Amino acid sequence: MSTTQDQVLSLGRRWAGAEQRGDTATLDALTTEDFTLVGPLGFVLSKPEWLQRYRSGDLVTTSLTWEDLTVRDHGDTAVVVGRHTQRATYRGAPADGTFRATHIAVRQGAQWRLAGIHLSPIAPATHGIELNHTIVFSHDKVASAEFLAGILGVPVGNPFGPFVPIELSNGVTMDFMNVDTVQGQHYAFHVGEDDFDAAFARIRESGTEYWADPEHRRPGEINHMHGGRGLYFDDPDGHNLELLTRP
Fold it and tell me: How many CA atoms lie within 13 A of 154 on its CB side?
């Protein structure tokens, strides 16, 4: 008879294969009715929500490895901690990552089933390099700085030299500078849930157009990639700005 470790690892291999195939029937059979996924950004999905991502075609997993595994046997419950590395897309956007994965398996009769998965991102090694500031080309630096600051709910800094600055909460400064010709760039801002609500309200109150996608094909919508929320809008100079609640 195979050991608990053998059975639980076999369960995990079948789960990984089903994720790569988008095989919702197998995923359904391998999991308990109250299965819960805690994603790498803290979002929580019930079993129906988890399966729907594959049924809808929103989530496509092209490769998934599950390795460096440690199994702890607690009778009818087993906890497996390992490394989960995936290449995937969610609604066309990259969803690649390497995570520390905790699987909770429970014995139901003669079968083992997954009751929960918790993914935590594995941070890359840091080398002490941080973005300090960036220059934002504008036709009217004051108007452009005031527009963005108004949406984000932050103050405009004191002008210095040719720049009008906005300082973000992580210490990065956006320095607006007048130029004759502006080529649109993309700037993305990670915000908290409450800040997203406030900024979204300002966007709508100001009549600013917004989209759920960077190509501006889904007007008047927001996205829910990776369990967060996001939207895109243009500033007065045509820069494509993004708000997102996921890191």
Answer: 20
